[in-house]
């Protein structure tokens, strides 16, 4: 079983001690901004990348932030944590040259996260920062497949494009371990809290699990993923008309007619977020890592 091998394969990046500490703040209600600042400060490169993201047009801050402590006060402790984990995900995604376009896949992760946060705000879901992080992480299984079986990943994406069929439906038909399962396993290995694992496992079709824990969060990311695939077709390596699970309507309390309004709102969000979506995570000198 591939998922059992994940932890023993050296191609799979593992969070270093700094990232491990940051992940643990995601589930620790007692973690303080000071703790987060202390741990991030241990890694100078990480701090500068976070500051670069905080200063992007997306956050629209009136002046440039140069200190991590200031960033935590201004955009909030959870947002800084999310940006730190986004930097880690970006590096994991770019850790090896393969046959797929990692920048495009990154844009898909970021668009899904930004859309998920916006949808959460729209429907009054409280844990918006958690939803953002779940959006960044939802497709990490694709990183695992790409690192372990780059040719297979490439062929899978090509087949999805040729057949104009979403990748997850092809994976189901092939009865192989899919990107949802591997994503869930990878997040378990990285010691992410359960809600992120749930989203990774069920983001393509939340109704697959009738007892789905964190169903609201999973439905938000599912819907954000659908919109993300509409805005950036093929960037997720999945093609064809995206599948929308009707469960989102009852769980999120929205009507099919709301989707059109949402689409127009997301158009504005997308325009405003282009530097985050396409910018990648580069350091101050613009060197991509
Ligand atoms: Fe997916
Ligand atoms: Fe996705």
From TrEMBL:
It comes from the Bacteria. It holds the Pfam family HDOD. Residues 12-206 form the HDOD domain. InterPro entries: HD/PDEase_dom, HDIG_dom, HDOD, RNase_Y/CdgJ. PANTHER family: PTHR33525, RIBONUCLEASE Y (PTHR33525:SF3). This is Domain HDIG-containing protein. It comes from Fervidobacterium pennivorans (strain DSM 9078 / Ven5).
